[in-house]
Amino acid sequence: MLDENIRSRLSHDIEGETRFDTFSTGRYATDASIYQIMPAGVVIAKTASDVAAALEAAREADIPLTMRGGGTSQCGQTVNSGLIVDCSKYLNRIIELDVAGRRAVVEPGIVLDDLNRALKPHGLWFPVDVSTASRATIGGMVGNNSCGSRSLRYGTTRDNVARIEGLLADGTAFDFGPGSGNRVPEPLLRQMLDLGLREADEIAARFPKVQRRVGGYNIDALVPGDTPVNLAHLLIGSEGTLAISTAIEIRLSPLPSKTRVMGVCHFPTFRAAMEAAKPLVALGPTSVELVDSTMIDLARSIPMYARTLESFVRGAPAAMLFVEFADSPDENQENMRRLADTMSDLGFGFGKGGDQEGGVVEVWDMALAAEIGELRKAGLNIMMSMKEAGKPVSFVEDCAVPLDHLADYTDRLTEVFHRHDTTGTWYAHASEGCLHVRPILNLKLEKDVRAMREIAEAAFEMVRDYKGSHSGEHGDGIVRSEFHGFMFGQRILSAFEEVKAAFDPAARLNPGKIVHAPKMDDRSLMRYPPGYDFADLKTGHDWSAWTGKGGGFQGAVEMCNNNGACRKLAGGAMCPSYRVTRDERDVTRGRANTLRLALSGRLGKDALFSDEMAETMKLCVGCKACKRECPTGVDMAKMKTEVLYQRGQKLGYGLRERLIAEMPRYARLAVALRGLIALRNRVPVLAALGEKLFGLAAARSLPLFRGDFFRDSEVRQTSANGKAGKVILFTDTFNRWMEPEIPRAALRVLTRAGYEVITASAPGRPLCCGRTYLAAGMMDRARAEAQRTLDALMPHVRAGTPIVGLEPSCLLTLRDEFLTLLPSEDARALSQNAFLFEEFITREARAGRFDLPMTDTGQGAHVHGHCHQKSAGVMGDMGAALDLVPGLAAQNIESSCCGMAGAFGYGAETHEVSVRMGELSLLPAVRAAATDDLVIANGTSCRHQIADGTGRRALHIAEVFDRASQNEVGKGQ
Asked: Which of 227, 129, 135, 127 is nearest to 177 (CA)?
């Protein structure tokens, strides 16, 4: 292991970062596989010299070194003891770009999507379009020899890499590539050339003749041929076991045609789809991708995919093949005609019924085609969204067989699953005969671990019989490496071992992968080893939708399968803190792993209540984006609330937390003290004192409580005939006391539109959703607040009166946290009858009931969506509502969280990160907006961040409608 001297020297010598505490190393103990191995330390390398220093430290300590990118390997490639070197935070530059030559040199940590965003303006891309493109690094793709859905046209990573520079295991620098100028140790080159010549016949006889073959070492690259041997191709797919890459030269391709078209082929049986794969591939598509009925049903239960499915699924197909063409418009017309003819020739047609029911749904809308592609790419994680104790397990999922045998192979493997009392969901690359399937197993049970091995042995024997590849896309890792002798023969395995010994005689680099592998069912290496247990907490939320201890909290935490979707840096909102820090601690996956390790006893006694756990959760802004965007539905916002609750129960709550939580109760007093708060905002000495006493950032202005706060009596003073119906206006704490012009605007709009507006009340003070208590982890107080509000609103809910709210974080609490604070039929009924202002207007307009004359505004508008609007999927309603305003040209700002996030932006220790979140995209976009354009943001925190960061006042949508309709009222309409 690493002694203190080596740790200290390594930390001092590198420009990057080191991590040696168990919380940090635990976050690197897993990848997207079933395995878990605690490393001795983590190096977050900033330069190639840092990598060299880490290698030297590993050699001195005689421990392994494993390179890591996005950590999304499904076979255990990136877990090991010893040092883990993370390239993704800093080693992510484009070193050189040759547009004319269609080539680039990149560092290994650059993420594929980030690379392709940089290449897009030049009309180029790196075409190995893996489903994990938002977090897969080029270095990881090289280590894996990754493939993509369009490998039929573009090949694998090996086909798109020209040169690799880096370090050998002894620290020697190398440069492997075609032609001259290479730096290759002569003895190593001679040994590899001799091996290729000696084993050429055996390689020809034993290597599968399928494109999707990534198992073992690419010793076929050593066989003499028409072009000189390129040792870079031997490193591709070697999983970091032979050398370390620090610079990779890649070949680029022109961007695919913008006139892509997709045919969604429906089939009545799964076998029919498999038998159709070969004739459909013969049509020359760019890809043919499969989803089965189980995948379709699971996707329907995930909000972000449900609407997409409605657009292209007809009836109840047993399987679908997505056939994509990317040619000229005329050619695509012909392609679709040939596709329809082929399906007809195969006997399928909509309305035929029985074994002939099927056909083609043509998709010409590029946006819809992209959504379908994203749905398919998310196939793995959609499968993993099952909440039961058993989960789909990856170990035979990317075997590849020739298309002639695909139907028989899938039938036979399904029979094997049934013999072990399990099933599997099929999806992915039908065009390559590489179908992903994961049988459902509970690997906490010894019997299911045994079943896993028996299924693997049966599957690999079939694949060998069909002359296919047992490792077709996701690599070898721990899962498949032990089977290389069985699949390739002992002579080829000996050649693999010779290659390893030549490159890495001390077995320093990622040992146990490809050669000299452990047993794939060694439970001591698994995430759930023998004796695995979980703390049985008395939780604040109801977690009964999941299984396990803590009333299901265990199952909710274990839903994280480390797929890494939370590591994306663009698109959606997840995960805003990671986008700023790029630290594994600050991403949904890192937090979930830390929780699981803490609650299963791997991080020491009382780890849940430790300062390290508090640090892990500190930068979670509670945006809820993970609940919607994480394919397995990990709800870290709710988990953070639970952690704060557990910590508060044991250690109590701090002064700042109480100050924030009790805001609804002392609001009237704050109105009386508003002058003091305003003075604090103007006098730096007072702001500094407030930071010292309460932990409220001196650099952040505090919201001002208003003397003209909104009173419910104002609702009773309005008059409307109620011809459009009756609504409850639910005014939240923030808008009531701090921005009363917003509920007044909403009241005027609803009244002008013909609604009778009423309020609900309870004795003593206004109703509140309890959001401030949730933010502090005071869940018992939040529950009491929720019960008080539920009791007041239920008579109106039973009467069918809609509840209309203004602040997303408050109104949506009625639809989310109320269900787990007060699990009951009443809470469910309320959740179905509570609407944001924009949702209500859109619903009423669609029903023909919303009649509000408005003036043509002739303005542009820039719309920032509150995180909870995005996570609840209501931004579409926001856009639809704004479309009702005549002459308003509204466009969404592509932004994640504003960074304010309720109390988060006020914290002295989180203010700086809060500002950096805003500066990622929101604040620059607002500054760039024309001065006459509107800025619209429905969240009170969002408006505060915009005001502090840009000096502009953002409007609530209710104010936009109020302004547009005010002139019409003045005209007497």
From this structure: 227
